[in-house]
Amino acid sequence: MTSTLPLTLPEFAERAAEVLPDGVLRYFAGAAGDEITLADNVVAWQRLALRQRVLVDVSKRDLSVEILGVRRPHPVIMAPMAWQTLANPGGEIAAAQGIGAAGGIYTMSCWASQHADDVAAQAADTTRWMHIHIFPDRDITQRLVDRAVRGGFEALVLTADQPVAGRRDRSMRAQFARPGSPNLADLAPGSLEPAQTWEDVAELVTSSPLPVIVKGLLEPGDAELAIQAGAAGIVVSNHGARQLDTVLSTASALPAVVEQVAGRVDVLVDGGIRRGSDIVKALALGADAVLIGRPLLWGLAVGGADGVRHSVELYLKELDIALAVLGVTSAAELEPSIVLPAPWSA
User: Does the residue 342 lie in any domain?
Assistant: First the structure.
């Protein structure tokens, strides 16, 4: 099927817009308010230029990185996204199979439209993380943790930036049948937890046999609190710009967070990563890996598991070429000096 799939990452987005129903596209593509942060998540990476060195032997290149103490073949992780059967009937199972076939990690949303046990059974060879919330009913959170352990998931990804639901103008006009979330069948509608605190995170870390990654941080002070609570990693994220408009873009927030963390835990980043060169910039600024959401969902919409796999492979091809042209032989060699403010953004 690869021969019929798009040749470039932008083409996947274009094709997805053609095949998805309007309401579903609005839901997945939309963000909070006027979508200023949504746009800046992308543009912020484009405001960074790359320093190029030449006549370096780059005949052998290594894309591997270490994530949670494990050497992984590359730094691409699929971000958690709800209701993936809306994008493709294969849903979360197909997405997990696709990212796994490309050697990446799949983060399954607790709002998934397929059961975690089914994803675990049918994507057993894929490294899987489970996304969770701290819900008002802590027993529901605990059941998600238990299900993750039982299903062989290797980490928990805790959303920290959603005490309430964001107001997403474009999504408000989206008309489609929501498929439900079988992993949260006993959760009352709208059950987010505005009273959650860092004490809840510390309790989760203490009780969980799996490492906890806290997702949704933009401030160095919050990164420090995550470390104090026992987090194994953090994700610099603004929830795909879906929670509050005009918050910092993730590329803008990343350097200060990396400086604060100082290598004590893994720092991951998501938001606006549309090219392999964006991955280069993220790693150079100190991220250990990247989470990619919408672009891989467009791959799922266009081509199911093959579409996800091919999308990841396009990112990796671009990443590999970027390393070679920059005169860098491995992802581990990337450092902040490679990145500078772009003259075209002045």
Answer: no
